[in-house]
Amino acid sequence: MSQFGFDLGGRNALITGASSGLGARFGRILAESGANVALGARRADRLEALAGEIGERARAVQMDVASEADIIAGFDAAEEAFGTIDTVIANAGVDGAGMIADMPEDEIERTLAINLKGAILTAREGAKRMIAAGTTKGRIVLIASITAFEPSPGLVAYSASKAGVKQAARSMAREWARHGICVNTISPGYIRTAINQDWFETEPGKKQIARFPKRRLMDEEGLDAPLLFLCSDAAEFVTGTDFVLDDGQTL
């Protein structure tokens, strides 16, 4: 349960990558704050379970962000359930881990397709619908990463995709500013999730944690307040901004 009181009542949100990890948490905290949430991802069974847990404010929307047709169909389903989507969180991603000299071409393409192209297409589809509906308080949040500006051996494709997300968000913020759509990014530090938990149990992973100033990983709830703020009416004057939330890991 989030301890922060941003009121998202009346907002209709679509969240990608919502079947697990951060995306699932985002769905929960937005619904707790009053928003209707369309939970988008490929794994329908997990989405349905999460929607059942959240309750009437949630709908499961099966979609693959690597496909524009899937994204459009996902927005169609979300709008059928709730009406115009005025809040978009582009969170879907894969880690694309591996030394770049050994990474197959198709894995590089997959990482860029989901993390970068998928984020752009998701934001674009949301903005197109907000503009068509005359929405003046649109909110789009894209999830980037501290790897967007920190050298990250073993995460070349991933870090490149997240750097692209940051710059795309700034440019989209400029394009849509006069439509009242605020576009921002959150760049989290390392958070223990299903994607990375095995790595951080290894000796190299433990050494990485020991190098952080606070010698710990972040908890998922560390993103709650900034995310809720950026989705709320209170963020009217914030656009084209990257929120770095890393527990000092890049210091």
From TrEMBL:
* Annotated Ketoreductase domain residues: 11-189
PANTHER family, alphabetized: 5-KETO-D-GLUCONATE 5-REDUCTASE, ALCOHOL DEHYDROGENASE, PUTATIVE (AFU_ORTHOLOGUE AFUA_3G03445)-RELATED
As one GO molecular function, the record gives: oxidoreductase activity
The UniProt family comment states: Belongs to the short-chain dehydrogenases/reductases (SDR) family.
What SUPFAM superfamilies does the record point to?
Answer: NAD(P)-binding Rossmann-fold domains (SSF51735)
Protein keywords: Oxidoreductase
Alphabetical list of InterPro entries matching this protein:
KR_dom, NAD(P)-bd_dom_sf, SDR_fam
The protein depicted here goes by the name: NAD(P)-dependent dehydrogenase, short-chain alcohol dehydrogenase family
